[in-house]
Amino acid sequence: MPTTQRTPPAAASGEQDIERIICASVLTRPQAPYAEMERIRETSMRHNQRFGIHAALLCQSGWYVHWMEGPGPALRAMRERVAGDNRHHTQLLVHHSRGPRYLLTRWSMMLNPSDEPPAEFGKRVSSLHESLQRGIQYPPTSVIRRLVAPLRVGLANETETDPEAFHRVGVCSADDGRGFDLVRWLARKHRTASQARRVAGEDDLDSGTDYVDFRQDGHPCRVIAVSRTGLRHGLRRAFLPDWGHLVLLFGDDAKRNTQLMQRVVEACASLPAHPELLGAASDEGVHARMAVAARVAGLRYRQLGLMRAEECDEAWHAVGERLALLGPPRSSQWDLTHPAWIA
């Protein structure tokens, strides 16, 4: 089914456009990468703050992926300095554009201890680099996703032409664990494996995220579990505008329920688009309070129904009905001819 490409988001009133660069390079010493990333974080945050640069560093399969955003001259100078760092080599550019910031915090990083051979990861890097050389470019979130978390369900047939058209459903729970339980339950239901990632921010804030890919009513679907802490990370917030829905699993603790909604409101602040909030709670009063809080923040809230957070079958049945009602998933691909593309 053909999909409509979206126009890249414009800067908000009074906000200046910045440049965005994503590069990938091979680690010189792949042993103990997290310790090296900690040292990079310490020096980068001191340097980047002076020049208004926000960055995310990802490490997987013997490769670094460095996503940087900031004023053009400073950003390009930083890329040259990064290229000369002997901790990595063979730097390839996979994205270069201008527009509003995606990375809303100064620093994020992610480590995936994957057993995938570096050569396989390198094939995805080369493909994106070669596409860029031909004038074909993808949104920054798409580039990161294609590199470190490629969709594990392929296109079903020739009518599916857009690999960016798939359901994206986040899930977060008031007690943190139930969202991850739902992802593991879906993995068992669809006889597949869930994937895990660890992310950290600028203040040693470490959290996990799990996801699972499968087909929902014939359409590719990814469900991502994130902790309440994880909602604060710049890298996670950068992906929220791509999510169509965020499932919120509320429990019996009123304080934890309120904290969850507060984190969601904070995470969605200043974003160009917000996921629809789908609430699951066992009490109508919880739904009423959460709906008010969402409305005050300018967010859409919809009840999934009355159910407990641990009732995975009931919760996903309600989500599936919502997805079916909305129809085929929307694409996150931008107009490839838009002037925001630089390279």
Uncertain stretches: none
Overall shape = globular
**Major sheet size, sense and barrel closure:** 12 strands, mixed
What is the fourth-level CATH superfamily of the largest domain? P-loop containing nucleotide triphosphate hydrolases
Q: Give the C-level CATH assignment of the largest domain.
A: Alpha Beta
What is the number of independent domains?
Answer: 2
Element order: H for helix, E for strand: EHEEHEEHHEHEEEHEHEHEH
Count of distinct strands: 12
Protein name: BLUF domain-containing protein
Domain BLUF: 18-110
Organism: Caenimonas sedimenti
GO molecular function, one term: FAD binding
Structural account:
With 343 residues, the protein is α/β, with parallel strands linked by helices. The protein has two domains: 18-148, Alpha-Beta Plaits; 167-326, P-loop containing nucleotide triphosphate hydrolases (Rossmann fold), CATH 3.40.50.300. The protein contains nine helices and twelve strands. It has helices spanning 33-51, 72-83, 118-133, 140-148, 177-189, 234-239, 254-268, 284-296, 312-326; strands spanning 18-27, 54-60, 63-70, 88-99, 107-112, 167-173, 195-200, 206-216, 219-226, 245-249, 276-281, 301-306. The protein has a twelve-stranded mixed beta sheet with strand order 4-1-3-2-5-7-8-9-6-10-11-12, sandwiched between helices. β11, α8 and β12 (301-306) form a beta-alpha-beta unit. α3 packs antiparallel against α4 and α7 packs parallel to α8 (284-296). It starts with 17 loop residues before the first strand and ends in a 17-residue tail after the last helix.
